[in-house]
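TASK: fixed-backbone design
INPUT:
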């Protein structure tokens, strides 16, 4: 039992933190005071987590946009309302697009900032096609939200299947040698001893 705890602790200490979710930052931690009263510092590696984007954040933003437009809110106001719920680059693109629409820019020109941002490009393409009606844009936003949720569910399903396959690798690495040592080797040794005795 103690060996399992030691092995688990060693695994936690040995395996690196994934780069996508955390970075290691060198910091100095005060651990004691020296004679003069100044702190003695020890350099340590401390994981510092980056804030992750909410995976369903864009889908929720597109649903909010669809609800605002279906309620009769003008497109520039609806874009301003959802700008606080999306990542920074997308928020700036949506705010700029809303300002251009409010100033009366042509749809192709107004949606150009949103088209330049990867997060808002699908909405911008749909909006350029449906520039005449806010209700058509509401339908396109709802479709984008449904598509984003479906893609997220599909990727989660793929990761779950991949994890199921990867879990069997350690099991195979443990049981295959045990099977060979306990099942095959005694039979081979028994046959070899019978053949050498009879010869």
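OUTPUT:
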């Amino acid at each position: 039992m103690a060996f399992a705890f030691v092995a688990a602790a060693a695994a936690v200490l040995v395996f690196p933190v994934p780069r996508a979710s955390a970075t290691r930052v060198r910091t100095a931690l005060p651990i004691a005071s020296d004679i003069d009263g100044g702190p003695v510092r020890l350099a340590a590696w401390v994981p510092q987590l980056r804030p992750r984007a909410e995976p369903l954040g864009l889908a929720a933003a597109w649903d909010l946009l669809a609800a605002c437009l279906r309620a009769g809110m003008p497109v520039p106001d609806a874009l301003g309302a959802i700008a606080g719920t999306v990542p920074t680059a997308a928020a700036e693109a949506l705010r700029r697009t809303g300002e251009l629409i409010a100033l009366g820019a042509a749809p192709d020109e107004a949606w150009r900032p949103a088209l330049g941002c990867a997060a808002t490009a699908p909405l911008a393409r749909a909006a350029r096609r449906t520039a005449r009606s806010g209700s058509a844009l509401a339908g396109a936003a709802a479709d984008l939200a449904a598509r984003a949720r479906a893609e997220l569910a599909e990727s989660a399903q793929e990761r779950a299947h991949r994890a199921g396959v990867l879990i069997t690798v350690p099991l195979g690495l443990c049981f295959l040698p045990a099977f060979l040592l306990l099942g095959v080797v005694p039979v081979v040794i028994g046959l070899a001893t019978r053949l050498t005795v009879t010869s």
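COMMENT: The beta strands are 22-33, 39-49.
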